[in-house]
Amino acid sequence: MSQELPDELPADQQAMLEAANATLLPLARLAVARGVHFGVIEERLKQAFVQAAREANPGTQPHRQVSRVSATTGINRREVTRLIHGQLQQARPRRPVAAEIYLHWQIDPDYRDRQGQPATLPRQGAKPSFETLAREITSDVHPRSLLDDMVRLGYCRLVEDGAKVAFVRDGAVPTNDLPRLIRVLGDNVGAHFMAAVENALRDDKPFFERALVAHEVPASAVPEVKRLVSEHWAEFRGRVVPALERLIDEGANSDEPRRRLLLGIYHHDATETPPPAPATMPSEPPADPSAPAR
């Protein structure tokens, strides 16, 4: 005897679909804005489902893997076979040299000013100069080519008729290189999303994740909030980056596993829409006092 599916999903699955709506709309907006069609995203989504199913069933025998993934995801066996055999494990790309120079500029005391901020450097000459800064990171690319690339990406700018190079604060968020900006978006949002998912699925809540939500904020007050967030981010980064560098150096010779760490802060605001008015139930007619009691 067949069983009918319930009209309503369990509460946790319904909540999951609501979360999917909240996360998929921004992704769809980005895809539409960059001309990426649905079929391309659909293929990546299928691959992600297959990978998640394989991770959820690590002990599955190879000859049963297709069936197990198909049962877990709802994707038909032929598609699962194609996706499993088509997946290629790609190594994560190394951090670009320009970003390494930018980070070293912030960390190395030799390239800071008396206030502890990244100093404005002569383009060439003895240390500290941009030339020596670049050569401390790599000798494979000429410092002038690296300087041109960093100016293009918004990490620094030329001052004093090109004789010196000035550090650009928050240049780690590129504005002149859209592909890199989108990759940064993927790293940041992906890490935040993964942390939130792991916290939701595990009792030990392994990742720190907090957010403040404020309603009825006047639009004119938002710039002040953004200023406060920026100030706290600068303070946070100034304390954490040197500490991370020290901890990495202290553990350089140990054999323990390595972890990729991502820390961040964000702000978002949008027009607040009032909640829908509650539905009103039709009132019952008053009871007839002459009617007999039941």
Features:
Arc Repressor Mutant, subunit A, 294 residues, 3% strand, disordered N terminus, globular, single chain, mainly alpha
Unreliable stretches covering 5 or more consecutive residues: 1-5, 88-93
Distance between the termini: 42 Å
Shape: globular
Largest sheet features: 3 strands, antiparallel
- Provide the CATH architecture of the domain at 97-167: Orthogonal Bundle
Name the beta content range.
Answer: under 5%
Helix content: 40-55%
What are the SSEs and their pairings?
Layout: H1 11-33, H2 38-56, H3 65-73, H4 77-86, H5 97-107, E1 121-122, H6 130-137, H7 143-153, E2 156-159, E3 164-167, H8 178-201, H9 222-250
Antiparallel strand pairs: 1-3, 2-3
Helix pairs in contact: 2-3, 3-4, 5-6, 5-7, 6-7
Mind explaining what this structure looks like?
- Residues 267-294 are annotated as: Disordered.
- Residues 273-294 have a biased composition (Pro residues).
- This protein is mainly alpha-helical.
- Among the domains are: 22-86, no CATH class; 97-167, Arc Repressor Mutant, subunit A (Orthogonal Bundle); 212-250.
- Helices cover 49% and strands 3% of the residues.
- The protein contains nine helices and three strands, in the order αααααβααββαα.
- A three-stranded antiparallel beta sheet has the order 1-3-2.
- The radius of gyration is 27 Å and the shape is globular.
Q: Could you give a quick summary of the protein structure above?
A:
With 294 residues, the protein is mainly α. Among the domains are: 22-86, no CATH class; 97-167, Arc Repressor Mutant, subunit A, CATH 1.10.10; 212-250.
